[in-house]
């Protein structure tokens, strides 16, 4: 194992030993160490707000542009029936486009922030067990659609031995349309941290970014995270994730 791999392993093991129930970590990788010692000649730019979903296929779709949805009570039974598939309103999630547009909810200070032109690339790793189809796809689409392409090296989906058939061949087939998406299948249930290690083991990006498999990234989500690591590879950035998510991380 090379030194870089050992460092990566130690960071991940430390996260485990700390007992962190991590939902999202951005973690520096071997190559990021090089950045700190390199002579920086890079300029800066305002955080990019790339979003290919600005003009969605169906502007009237449920939940489009982040609109709230109130289902008629006649659909309560359907909602109840499917609730336990994900312990949230799976029925409604499945009716909202997986690549919907959402409003830019960032505070002004975030959208006006500047970052360096030569940020490191990242591998985004999603680990899941029996994730709901629509939320998993929404997570992937949001990363593909709202990340600067030159910074997104790949998306790695780690299937921690799911039982759902739709997460096998149908998922392979769906994701085959996206060259940046790779799927790693574990042969037995490993648990979250070992699943993340499996994703990290095959990652080729300079920074590892771990996301929950039921998120929706907004514009400008990635560059500020990478900027923190660029400025100091010993930092692992924490992010605030609206409503449900929490981002915690640490480094060696
Ligand atoms: Mn979660």
Automatic annotation (TrEMBL):
<dbReference type="Pfam" id="PF00535">
    <property type="entry name" value="Glycos_transf_2"/>
</dbReference>
<dbReference type="InterPro" id="IPR029044">
    <property type="entry name" value="Nucleotide-diphossugar_trans"/>
</dbReference>
<keyword id="KW-1015">Disulfide bond</keyword>
<protein>
    <submittedName>
        <fullName>Polypeptide N-acetylgalactosaminyltransferase 5</fullName>
    </submittedName>
</protein>
<dbReference type="InterPro" id="IPR001173">
    <property type="entry name" value="Glyco_trans_2-like"/>
</dbReference>
<feature type="domain" description="Glycosyltransferase 2-like">
    <location>
        <begin position="123"/>
        <end position="230"/>
    </location>
</feature>
């Amino acid at each position: 194992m090379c030194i870089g791999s050992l460092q990566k392993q130690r960071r991940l093991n430390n996260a485990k030993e700390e007992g962190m129930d991590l939902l999202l970590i951005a973690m520096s990788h071997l190559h990021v160490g090089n950045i700190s010692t390199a002579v920086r000649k890079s300029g800066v730019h305002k955080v990019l707000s790339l979003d290919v979903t600005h003009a969605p296929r169906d502007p009237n779709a449920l939940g489009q542009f982040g609109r709230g949805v109130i289902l008629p009570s006649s659909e309560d039974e359907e909602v109840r029936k499917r609730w336990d598939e994900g312990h949230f309103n799976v029925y409604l999630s499945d009716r909202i486009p997986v690549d919907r547009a959402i409003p830019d909810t960032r505070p002004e200070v975030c959208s006006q922030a500047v970052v360096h032109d030569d940020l490191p690339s990242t591998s985004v790793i999603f680990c899941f067990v029996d994730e709901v189809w629509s939320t998993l796809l929404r997570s992937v689409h949001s990363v593909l659609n709202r990340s600067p392409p030159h910074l997104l090296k790949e998306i790695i989906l780690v299937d921690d031995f799911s039982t759902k058939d739709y997460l096998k061949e149908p998922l392979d087939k769906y994701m085959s349309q996206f060259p940046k998406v790779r799927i790693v299948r574990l042969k037995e249930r490993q648990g979250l941290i070992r699943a993340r290690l499996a994703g990290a083991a095959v990652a080729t990006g300079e920074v590892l970014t771990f996301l929950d498999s039921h998120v929706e990234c907004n514009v400008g989500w990635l560059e500020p995270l990478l900027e923190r690591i660029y400025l100091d590879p010993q930092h692992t950035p924490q992010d605030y994730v609206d409503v449900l998510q929490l981002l915690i991380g640490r480094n060696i």
